[in-house]
Amino acid sequence: MMNARLSAIGMAVPAKAISNHDFEQIIDTNDEWIVSRTGIKMRYHTTENEFTSDLCVRAVEDLVANHNVTLDDVDMILVATVTPDQPMPSMACRVQHRLGLHRAGALDVYAACAGFGYGIVMAKGLIAGGSHRKILVLGAETLSKVTDFSDRTSCVLFGDGAGAVLIEADETGNIRPGCITGASGEGGADLYISGYATEIDGLQLNMSRKIVQNGRKVFKWAVNTVTDQMQKLAAMNGLTMNDIDWFVPHSANLRIIEAICKETSYPLDKVLESIVDYGNTSSASIPLALCRGIRDGRVKPGDRIMIFGFGGGLAYAGVIFEWKG
Ligand code: ACO
Which residue range is the domain that position 184 belongs to? Predict the structure, then answer.
């Protein structure tokens, strides 16, 4: 069985910075509330004519600019997103075309904030199965386009961004065999963007096509689920959380991360987050945090990293790998 190696990473955020003070102009809020309840200081929003596929392309270009890799033999592109430019064609097909990766298959992964984790698990499986050898996995969102700017409980949270990693077939690999994938589908109505159906499990939906969430319920579910599953993920790889050099959870809210660390006695200073500077960027949050940690030198070659995505679905996915540099 062939192993998989996560070998390169890139990221992109739009140029338009939105501070907490900017929200003070449009809703009844303040910097102190946002920082103390969420940790967020800044987020970036796309312009009217800038879309998820644009961020995808820029993230891959950034990957190429920072690593000695060739992409012409990429044989699969997986893009995790819930904010595609349009439902069809997929973002993966847009990336394939715009970057001229003609040998690659292309597929979008629809698992909200868990999407990047699911994408890595899928890439690893395709490589292990022998059908593919070089896969681009992206997490990319333009959540500002589905944000209800009249809802002060949610609009301050979301930002736009994209991250990309390259996963290659490799004799030894660096992605551990044990992965977690799961869902609490009964919580679907607690975090949704409406489409065609007007109800989920009998609950009448807000048909605005903007993000609607039961913030407190999602908060509690996230802390309980991640606390439990991250330890399972470590154990199924013969490890404990003490063996994890960097924990990279989905950056939904700094308080969720703090609660998880408190529950598990995992040190907060060994967490890589992207919430403070970029807000909640859904499937992009993990690669943004990881890329920054690698680029600023906190992550060293050989460090063991656990990524754990969780969010809409409600779905979750986690993997462990050792960064080789
Ligand atoms: N500014 C000022 N006050 C506010 C704001 C705001 N922006 N938003 C809410 N408040 C007020 C509320 O009205 C409430 O006032 P009240 O006590 O007078 O009723 C008070 O602050 C407390 O509100 P809570 O909802 O209890 O605040 P909480 O501490 O739970 O924080 C939050 C809300 C930030 C949404 C939190 O619950 C959370 O982060 N939940 C998880 C969200 C999440 O992870 N979502 C995943 C999304 S992923 C995706 O969508 C792709």
Answer: 180-272+289-322
